[in-house]
Amino acid sequence: MSDAAAEFWRFSLAIYARPGVASACLMLQDEHGRDVNLVLYCCWLGISGRGRLDHDSLAVADRAIAGWRHDVVEKFRAARRAIKAAALPESDGLYAKAKGVELEAERLLQRRLVEQALPANGAAAAAQRLADALANLALYIGDAPAVAIRDALAAMAANDFQVAAG
Predict the structure, then answer these.
(1) What is the DSSP string of 69-126?
(2) On the CB side of 49, how many CA atoms lie within 13 Å of its CA?
(3) Which 3 state secondary structure label does DSSP give 139?
(4) CA–CA distance, 27 with 13 (Å, rounded to integer)
(5) Separation between Cα atoms, residue 18 and residue 35, nearest integer Å
(6) Measured between alpha carbons, how far is 26 from 30 in angstroms, rounded to an integer?
(7) CA 44, CA 110: separation in Å to the nearest integer?
(8) Contact, 40 vs 137, CB < 8 A?
(9) Rounded to two decimals, what is the model's pTM?
(10) Three-state SS at 51
């Protein structure tokens, strides 16, 4: 995996683990039809110093992952949710495996997104990177609620966007 793809994955895990972010992302996905990985991509582009998206570059990124998202990620998600809904005691192991496969499919999707990203501008100030991340997020989600995501970005900015390696 490229360094940028690994960086994006670490960022995604770190921000998703922050209070309220997972539920905000799932609400954007389930109630507003937004792709969680595109939400995270918008945020990562800004905070990593890769700048702002415009409508065209966002559309290019979305097209780059649309087939994989529809044909693979959404199918694994549906299967995982069906296993959970069945609520069979003996299906716990299968559910865990399905969740792992879904996450790996999302990781591969993120690699495709990284291919669309510009190189990082290490000279970008933290305030500019936060502004870019928030602008990218607003471009993608519009006026959909995402307070927890915005708060997580601000908290990360306060720590100069340090994400644990892993």
Answers:
(1) IIIIIHHHHHHHHHHHHHT-GGGHHHHHHHHHHHHHHHHHHHHHHHTTPPPP-TT--H
(2) 12
(3) helix
(4) 17
(5) 18
(6) 6
(7) 11
(8) no
(9) 0.91
(10) coil
Give 159's contacts (C-beta < 8 A, 6+ positions apart). none
d(CA 89, CA 149): 34
Burial of 143 (0-12, 13-18, 19+ CB in 10 A): exposed
- Distance of alpha carbon 158 from alpha carbon 12, whole angstroms: 17
Provide φ and ψ at 156, rounded to 5°. Answer: -65, -35
- Cα of 66 vs its chain's centroid, Å: 14
How many other CB atoms are found less than 10 A from the CB of residue 95? 18
Nearest-angstrom CA–CA distance, 45 and 60: 14
Find how far residue 43's CA is from the centre of its chain: 8
Q: Which two tokens stand for residue 62?
A: 């979305």
What pLDDT sits at residue 123? 82
**H or E segment and range at residue 60:** helix 55-68
* Low pLDDT (below 50) residues in the chain: 1, 164-166
